[in-house]
Design a protein that fits this description.
This protein has 441 residues and is α/β, with parallel strands linked by helices. The chain has eleven helices and 17 strands. Helix content is 36%, strand content 21%. The radius of gyration is 42 Å and the shape is flat.
Length: 441
């Protein structure tokens, strides 16, 4: 068969050939493939040349499409948030009416009213935990960035926002094992950087200022940070629970207190910001609403208000409960349930010791670990109460006021006790041993 050998088997006994007729067809196929590739290159070169001739118009069309896409995206976002155009001013003034956080439902979110400036540099927000302080903080910062970026904001039409060079935040806990940062150190690292970058055109947001450390020192740091921010002349909002910080804000001419409303009847937060007044943390209310047992709340109330002479924000002394905190009535004592017999073995009880099923006599009551002292065959041991079963109670084995030292003490110990009851004698002592003891105890 005429053709060309293209391969040989491993054993050499088989040859693979390409017949001569097929070789002509393969050559023709290769030529057609080369012609196809050349035609593709020619078309691409022609299209590239046409694009180069119309490049300015194409770039203009791309920019127009990007602009239209951005505008339609902004419109859809505004429609979904029920947002309105915002007034943006270079005056140092923020006035927000009926604001809502974009991630909260407009049907359930409580509108936020907030005013900052021109005579006030900062607002200190206080109030109960889970009351909405952090949400209010984030809402002001986020809406300011949205308005400054040209987006519609979910507020009423009268709202006005100020231009800021930066929005600097310390929100949340960024503790890290890898970076050796605790809760307090992570906050302080952020605050130090914020103080170094803040200018009179900045907006600073500080959540739980001074938390995560000793209350006295944390309060001092919070006051010092607020004083430094006032000196820089920037706008800032801070949340805190420290009563001293509330007092400081009330006395400072450039600061204003604000609080999150709390319904003392239903013991639920109202998520409404009220400017001009300081709030209370209401920790006992919230702990009770979350399921804290009553006796723990009573103990917490006594520890918090029973030893403090005066609380600055409420004027509470040890005779008056704090405003809004109901007096915790002492519950009627209920008879305690009788403990299982296994935990109340009496001295002299005859018991069975498992798993060896040895009979012993109780010589000592249960300790804090639930171990009962049992004497078995003259040996004293501590045995878990779960391994014991009562056979005969002591009152059925021994008469009333029976002297159990006859059973459990040695003759020497009984003589020593008898001497101790009469007089002091040097060298006289009682030796107590239990199984496994190396020395007398």
């Amino acid at each position: 068969m005429p053709g060309a050998v293209v391969d040989v088997s491993q054993s050499g006994g088989t040859l693979f050939i390409e017949p001569q007729a097929i070789g002509r067809l393969r050559t023709e196929l290769d030529l057609l493939q080369l012609e196809t590739e050349n035609e593709v290159r020619r078309i691409l070169y022609d299209l590239a040349a046409q694009i180069a001739d119309n490049l300015p118009a194409l770039k203009q069309n791309i920019e127009a499409m990007e602009t239209l896409d951005f505008l339609f995206a902004r419109g859809k976002l505004s429609q979904s948030m029920h947002a309105l155009p915002a007034k943006v001013s270079t005056d140092r003034m923020i006035e927000i009416h009926g604001a809502r956080h974009p991630l909260l439902s407009s049907d359930t979110a409580v509108p936020l009213d907030f005013v900052l400036g021109p005579d006030v540099s900062g607002v200190v927000i206080t109030g109960p935990n889970t009351g909405g302080k952090t949400v209010a903080l984030k809402t002001v910062g986020l809406l300011s960035l949205m308005a400054q970026s040209g987006l519609h904001v979910p507020t009423e039409s009268e709202s006005t926002f100020s231009m800021h060079s930066e929005v600097l935040c310390d929100i949340g806990d960024r503790q890290s094992i890898l970076e050796n940062l605790s809760t307090f150190s992570s906050h302080m690292k952020n605050v130090i950087e914020i103080l170094s970058r803040a200018t009179e055109e900045s907006l600073v947001l500080l959540d739980e200022l001074g938390s995560g450390t000793d209350p006295a020192e944390g309060m001092g740091l919070a006051v010092a940070v607020l004083e430094e921010l006032c000196a820089k002349g920037c706008h800032f909002i801070a949340t805190t629970h420290y009563p001293e910080v509330k007092d400081y804000a009330a006395k400072h001419p450039r600061l204003q207190n604000a609080r999150m409303a709390f319904d003392r009847e239903s013991l639920r937060p109202l998520y409404r910001l009220e400017l001009g007044a300081a709030g209370e943390s209401c920790a006992l209310h919230i702990a009770g609403r979350l399921g804290m047992p009553r006796h723990i709340l009573e103990r917490a109330y006594a520890a918090a208000y029973g030893t403090l002479e005066m609380r600055p924000e409420t004027g509470v002394n040890r005779q008056n409960p704090p405003s809004g905190v109901p007096k915790l009535q002492k519950q009627e004592e209920k008879p305690q349930a009788q403990q299982p017999r296994s935990l109340t073995f009496r001295i002299g009880d005859s018991v069975m010791v498992y798993p060896n099923k040895e009979i012993g006599i109780v010589f000592a009551p249960s300790n804090e670990r639930g171990e009962i002292g049992v004497q078995v065959k003259g040996r004293k041991n501590r045995i878990m109460h779960k391994r014991l079963k009562l056979l005969v109670p002591a009152e059925e084995l021994y008469p009333e006021n029976y002297d159990f030292s006859i059973i459990f003490d040695s003759v020497e110990n009984r003589k020593a006790r008898h001497i101790m009851e009469k007089r002091h004698e040097p060298g006289n002592r009682i030796v107590l041993r239990e199984e496994g003891d190396e020395e007398a105890r």
